[in-house]
Amino acid sequence: MAKNFRLISSIINILKQLNWKVKILALAAVVLIFASGLIVVSEQPGFCNSCHIMNTFYDSWKTSSHSEVNCLDCHLQPGFVGHVKGKINGLAQAVDCIVGRVGTKPNAMIKDTSCLRSECHSTEELLTKNIDYKGIKFTHKNHVAKVVDGIRITCGTCHSHFEGDEHFNVNNDVCFTCHFLRDIEDNNGLVQTSCQDCHEVPDMAIQRGLVTINHAEFVSYKASCEDSCHKKEVQKTSEVADRVCLNCHSFNKEQQTDSVELHEAHSNNDKVECFACHGEVSHGQTEVTSVSVMMDCQNCHSATHQVQRTIYATEHPMQNEKTDRVLSPMFLTHVECTGCHIEPVQRKSGILDSFGTVAKAVPRACDKCHEEGTGQQYIPFWQGKIKELYEKISQAVNMLEQRAELETDEQLAQELQGKVKQVRSILESVSSDGSWGVHNFKYTEAMLLQANEVLSETK
């Protein structure tokens, strides 16, 4: 301790003997050495990790393919000017961190010049090399320096730190957004892509249930992948909700219809992920166990229960909009179809099994909410009344139709035919519904009474 004190005293005595010019030079040298040391220390990855909000990014960097690359080699633009700007920006960030103006989720935009340096990634090699990425054909030639609908594609467009443990990894969701997100008006994507642009034709047969699929055979017939088996591989159209803007902006922005301007504002300056606005775009089925799963029944069997829906919700198209509609108590209490249709039965009985069942409505389903025996008591009563009224109106409309055919006055005959058509539409709805009043007894009865009123007007 005494030796250290004597050493410090000697240094002070020496400094006192120096003139003021030498003292200034010595001070400048000390400041320069200290500043140089600080710059060197501040450029180490460990220094970046000294800020707690960088911990997760630092951990992912250590396990990534860029773990041997210094952070600033990527995050600062190459060259002296870029280095100076980066250090000034870093100083400003340090001040923000001290005063508490730093968010918990930092972001950064890596310039292409950082990635495409000769010592890192050669542009020439990228443009000529074909890549097999998890079974997907890819080439940078169609992406580097391209502009799509206002989006200037950069390295960071596809490579980003979004999920998983990899730092600056390829994000498939960005690929799906550009290639498969459909426009709500014309159902076209920003980029026209076919299956074989990205995928090789499978060279082996695939077994799906009872069917063997040979893709090579389909291709030899010049069958279109997109228009046959894989037409439903993309299931989302571009529709950005207003509330998405509030994730970043304090106030909702004025609606803009020009997608080019929106893309330029959100992708060319700041790093905004495509799916932050558009959401996740699904592409491809994760698991298919049979050919029937691949088929979309809605192509042929669309709105097959529409009649039942209109009766249950009192939305029959032939009804006057001003008509007082009597809603079913079950509808008002939000009883779903599965509340009454509880008994699985085979769709068709016979020698050939249809391999499927339907849920049949049974009276005992009422007992889940009402007293025991309620369904058995009321259902036959409702159906009897509706069938009786239905039969009465059917006979009357048959007679009116015969009268219209025999009518010699052409104008009157057309009026009668119009009445017949209106009544038969109501009768067909009731019979097609098939519940004979159970879905909505009062409304079904009101429809039939209106049909009866139409008939009465012709007498």
Description:
This protein is mainly alpha-helical and 459 residues long. It has three domains: 2-110, no CATH class; 123-294, no CATH class; 306-456, Butyryl-CoA Dehydrogenase, subunit A, domain 3, CATH 1.20.140. The chain has 20 helices and twelve strands. It has helices at 2-17, 20-42, 45-48, 55-62, 71-75, 80-99, 112-115, 123-128, 155-158, 172-180, 195-198, 215-220, 259-267, 274-278, 291-294, 306-312, 329-332, 374-406, 410-433, 441-456, and strands at 130-133, 136-139, 147-148, 151-152, 159-160, 169-170, 182-183, 206-208, 211-213, 237-238, 341-346, 357-361. The protein is elongated, with a radius of gyration of 38 Å. The mean pLDDT is 79.
Task: Give a quick rundown of the structure.
The protein is mainly alpha-helical.
Main features:
single chain; 459 residues; mainly alpha; Butyryl-CoA Dehydrogenase, subunit A, domain 3; 3 domains; 20 helices
Structural class: mainly alpha
Q: What about the largest sheet?
A: 2 strands, antiparallel
| Number of alpha- plus pi-helical segments | 20
Task: Determine the strand fraction and express it as a percent band.
Answer: 5-15%
Helical coverage, percent range: 40-55%
Q: What low-confidence regions span 5 or more consecutive residues with pLDDT below 50?
A: none
Find the count of extended strands (DSSP E, 2+ residues): 12
For the record, the count of structural domains works out to 3
User: Distance between the terminal alpha carbons, to the nearest Å?
Assistant: 126 Å
**Nearest-integer average pLDDT:** 79
Shape: elongated
The largest sheet has its strands arranged as 1-2
- Radius of gyration (Å): 38 Å
